[in-house]
Design brief:
Blueprint lengths: L1 E5 L11 H14 L3 E5 L8 H11 L6 E5 L10 H7 L5 E3 L3 E5 L14 H12 L5 E5 L20 H10 L4 E4 L6 E5 L2 E5 L15 E8 L2 E8 L4 E3 H5 L8 H5 L3
Parallel strand pairs: 1-2, 2-3, 5-6, 6-7, 7-9
Antiparallel strand pairs: 1-10, 4-5, 8-9, 10-11, 11-12
The structure holds fe (ii) ion (2 copies).
One fe (ii) ion binds next to loops.
């Protein structure tokens, strides 16, 4: 099963790069993914016109299932009221061998992330029903600090409790966005993958737009990073210090 994980489109902001988003959508359609997961920040200020613009782009995605979650920017100015109207999503998506759910870490007019006690209870109970499946949980905010992104602001504020529930529930893979910097962290048997920004020029520590490609085979998976308009890379290369700058010259012309 192939999942494409994209994040932080930021339609409507001054640093939005529409050509990068168009290019990414063309690339993704060519990969014929089963599921596309979007971990929030579709917009800049949660405005109606920005949601409309994001919808125009995302309607061009060709995939069997689409999971769109909100980020802190989408919750601004009552944008949270629009999220579900534009992008309704299933509470839990169950496939032959995997279960995927999106938990909300965003709150109206607040940048910091939080999962909250009730949502954690729900997550724990939900995951109990899918003991034999490969378990994926997606959220907007980063669960652990990411290097090369400045100070660790707006982390999920109850990250300790969230990590405990995720690990105890046997979650295999966590997908996060928000920091605009791709990264991979492993805690016990669980992998946390952060997507970079697919189409904002406000990048941190990794200076090309990118998204993640995840191939799930029974209990294991392989994750790669795809630079928009560039090559696929192993995450190990990023962990060793590759910062995406080598692609910048080519991409400047395409933005
Ligand atoms: Fe963002
Ligand atoms: Fe964000």
């Amino acid at each position: 099963m192939k999942i494409v994980h994209i994040s932080d489109l930021h339609c409507g902001e001054n640093y939005f790069a529409p050509r990068m988003l168009e290019m990414a959508i063309r690339e993704i359609n060519g990969m014929k993914p089963d599921i596309v997961v979007i971990t929030g920040d579709l917009t800049w200020n949660g405005l109606l016109e920005e949601y409309g613009l994001a919808k125009e782009y995302l309607d061009k995605l060709e995939c069997k299932r689409l999971i769109v979650g909100g980020g802190n920017h989408d919750y601004k100015l009552t944008g949270f009221l629009l999220l579900n109207k534009f992008f309704p999503r299933p509470e839990v998506l169950v496939t032959d061998n995997a279960v995927i759910c999106y938990i909300s870490t965003s709150r109206p007019d607040r940048d910091v992330g939080e999962v909250g006690h009730r949502q954690l209870l729900w997550l724990r109970e939900t995951m109990k029903k899918y003991k034999t499946k490969f378990k994926v949980v997606a959220m907007h905010h980063h669960l652990v600090p990411i290097p090369d992104t400045g100070t660790a602001q707006n982390l999920v504020m109850d990250a300790g409790d969230v990590l405990k529930v995720l690990i105890e529930s046997g979650v295999n893979l966590v997908l996060c966005g928000h920091k605009h910097r791709p990264w991979k962290t492993r805690i016990e048997d669980m992998c946390i993958l952060n997507a970079g920004s697919v189409s904002s020029r406000r990048l941190r520590g990794f200076f090309s737009n990118s998204y993640n490609i995840i191939d799930i085979r029974r209990e294991s998976f392989r994750a790669e990073l795809k630079i928009v308009g560039g090559r696929k890379m192993d995450f190990e290369e990023i962990l060793r210090g590759y910062d995406g700058l080598a692609h910048l010259g080519d991409l400047k012309m395409k933005r």
